[in-house]
Specification:
2 helices, mainly beta, 3-stranded antiparallel beta sheet, about 40% strand, two-stranded antiparallel ribbon
């Protein structure tokens, strides 16, 4: 079965974010991933999964003004 979501962790700010695997695969060759929080290029791939809840299981998240925010 295909993994839909891929979890990434920034080595600079230690925050985690989830992207769709298809979007990352379809990026152009000259592009690279950056952290959406601190714009660092130091991003590590954590794991890929079918379920979004499974990717987000290790961290705690809460909803703030309709957006999901990571709580340390």
């Amino acid at each position: 079965m295909l993994n839909i979501y891929t979890s990434y962790r920034c080595r600079t700010c230690k925050k985690e974010f989830v992207l769709l695997t298809d979007d990352v695969d379809n990026m152009a060759n000259g592009r690279y991933l950056t952290c959406p929080y601190c714009n660092s290029k130091r991003v590590v791939k954590e794991k890929a999964s079918d379920s979004l809840k499974e990717c987000m299981q290790e961290r705690s998240y809460r909803r703030v003004n309709g957006a999901i925010k990571q709580v340390r």
